[in-house]
Write a structure and sequence with these properties.
- The structure is a homodimer.
- Helices cover 39% and strands 22% of the residues of chain A.
- By secondary structure, chain A is of the alpha/beta class.
- Chain A has one domain: SPOUT methyltransferase, trefoil knot domain (Alpha/beta knot).
- The longest helix of chain A is centred in the N-terminal third of the chain and has 17 residues.
- Chains A and B meet through helix 1, strand 4, helix 4, helix 5 and helix 6 of A and helix 1, strand 4, helix 4, helix 5 and helix 6 of B.
């Protein structure tokens, strides 16, 4: 089963750092990849790709396709759509149902002003509290609930570096040394 | 017991949206307030304050004081310091100890390049996975673990509006109507 994030196209200057954070959270918490709709942004692509290159894993990044095309294609292939929104059903009330479904999941992270179409096409509109906060936080909490904390045990293939948890300071292993 | 977020001063243009997201997450997940060190940014202040005004609660925002001053004052008043960093001890391994401590908590959310001083002054350096992602996500996950999901039941005093969870669409109650 695939878990892919769809980040709805953002207002360029204002939201590009946020979009990068969404991508990095998606990767760190175990999603398979991110699709960024409607825009092409090489800065965002390079920032996420750089982390994948150094810290490993097979996380993919796609961008530029129209939102409507992406949603229709996902549905046509038998996948389901989960839309994270402060107006939806609280994640604790619905996560067991979502977790049990064997369908590929497209998890939509919007910006402000998401069109009605998205609410209607979504199989689940899910809230991470009903307060305004952050799509970055919403995605992290959703994936933590979906994967039940397993993000803390993830291993990333072909990582060049790995952080070793430490009480004080920074301990980073250069995994490329192993081959020497 | 107080739970206050300290956001370390940010690179102005690049990080102001991120700082706003940190503030909104802090509020939505039940922290008492946010201190933003070293800078004054009226945009960030107004964005967070606007949400407090509309959605309620007593969340406070302070900014402009030097990081060193804030840390020293917190320690002098008997509080403890928790620093969220990808280099720290994984939150599931340490959250029970942190939760049991009766001390006021200053939860530090850095940007990149946090000085060694912060690691050393922190009572706990805590990681939300050892992967690079987002301080916004790290804070949300930390508070969710600290408060054990109670953010989903929070009520905010004097809210002017309230969102009612909905399967499709948006249901918002204007609470000011009650007085009419």
């Amino acid at each position: 089963m695939k878990n892919v994030i769809l980040r709805l196209g953002h207002r360029y200057e204002r939201d590009k750092r946020i979009t990068t954070h969404v991508g990095l959270v998606a990767r760190a918490f175990g999603a398979d990849g991110i699709i960024i709709s409607d825009i092409n942004d090489s800065n965002v692509y390079e920032s996420i790709k750089d982390v994948v290159d150094r810290f490993g894993g097979n996380f993919f990044i796609e961008m530029g396709e129209k939102k409507q095309t992406i949603l229709k294609k996902w549905k046509d292939l038998g996948g389901e759509i989960i839309h994270l929104t402060m107006y939806g059903i609280p994640v604790p009330n619905i996560i067991d149902i979502i977790r049990k479904s064997p369908k590929d999941k497209l998890i939509i992270v919007g910006a402000s002003k998401v069109e009605r179409l998205v609410y209607e096409m979504a199989d689940y509109n899910v809230s991470i509290t009903s307060q305004p906060h952050s799509e970055v936080a919403a995605l992290a909490i959703f994936l933590d609930y979906l994967f039940q904390g397993s993000e803390f045990g993830l291993k990333f293939q072909d990582a060049k570096m790995e952080v070793i948890p430490s009480e004080k300071g920074k301990e980073v292993h250069d995994l490329r040394d192993k081959d020497k």
